[in-house]
Amino acid sequence: MLNKTFALGFACLVLLLQSCTKPNEQKSGYEIEGNQVVFYHGHPAQKEAVREADPNTFKSINSDYGKDKKQVFYWGKILPKADPVSFVCLGWPFSRDKHYGFSTDRILSEDGSHFEIISNPKDLEAEGVIYARDSHRVYAKKGVVEGADPKTFVIVPMFSRNYLAHDHKQVYWLDKPLEGVDGGSFQRLTEYHFKDKNAVWDYLMANQSRWRPKPGADLQSFEGLGRFYARDKNRVYYKDVTVEGAD
């Protein structure tokens, strides 16, 4: 009886280990196979040898990055100038070492010791990391957000991807300044309603999405009511339309 129980337990363990081992076409990231480092990517996965990597000192950081004692790798390729000792991932697509700030495989900043992601008020995992900064500049994935002040730059949550932000001077939409909007007084009232010292602002989702001052809105009394509704002394608003007849 004991032998049967042992055999059954051993068989279950083998099946469990087999179920935990992914076939090659489902793998992703780095693995050491034999005496070399390989990188799996794509669906189904393709395998590439990372010939420049030292298998004896190689460590996988995540499915994109790895490093050995001499260099850092992104997608199986050497990340130029990256220091493996001080290299850390901050949140995709940003990383840094003691000298530089990176976006995927490119150097963005030469102020690596101060390079950091800018906190997103919403869920980072759901929305992704959008902006980073150092002592001098604000960065998006593709490069510098021109004119943005890193000390006062903040992300403004919206109903979709958080590409709305402001500093003490300007408001930025899709990394570009919005004309006529004051960053120092800009505030979010609901997910669809915003205002600064000059106007209430609408975000219109049409064939060409755009921002505009809200027609007829009373700036002084305008306030948000939950997620989608707002009001002033004259009207109630749902998103970018007036709720006719509402008190």
Give an overview of the whole structure.
There is one protein chain. By secondary structure, the chain is mostly beta strands. It has helices spanning 2-20, 124-127, and strands at residues 29-33, 36-41, 46-50, 59-60, 65-67, 72-74, 77-78, 88-91, 94-96, 101-103, 106-109, 116-117, 132-133, 138-140, 143-144, 154-155, 164-166, 171-173, 176-177, 187-188, 193-195, 200-204, 210-213, 223-225, 229-231, 236-238, 241-242.
C-alpha-based Rg, rounded: 26 Å
Q: If strands are numbered along the chain, what order do they take across the biggest sheet?
A: 4-5-6-7
Instruction: Look at the helices and sheets and give the structural class.
Output: mainly beta
The helix fraction, in percent, is: under 10%
Q: What about the largest sheet?
A: 4 strands, antiparallel
Keywords for this entry:
247 residues; mainly beta; elongated
Question: What order do the helices and strands come in, and which of them pair?
Answer:
Layout: H1 2-20, E1 29-33, E2 36-41, E3 46-50, E4 59-60, E5 65-67, E6 72-74, E7 77-78, E8 88-91, E9 94-96, E10 101-103, E11 106-109, E12 116-117, H2 124-127, E13 132-133, E14 138-140, E15 143-144, E16 154-155, E17 164-166, E18 171-173, E19 176-177, E20 187-188, E21 193-195, E22 200-204, E23 210-213, E24 223-225, E25 229-231, E26 236-238, E27 241-242
Antiparallel strand pairs: 1-2, 2-3, 4-5, 5-6, 6-7, 8-9, 9-10, 10-11, 12-13, 13-14, 14-15, 16-17, 17-18, 18-19, 20-21, 21-22, 22-23, 24-25, 25-26, 26-27
Summarize the model shown.
With 247 residues, the protein is mainly beta. Helix content is 9%, strand content 34%.
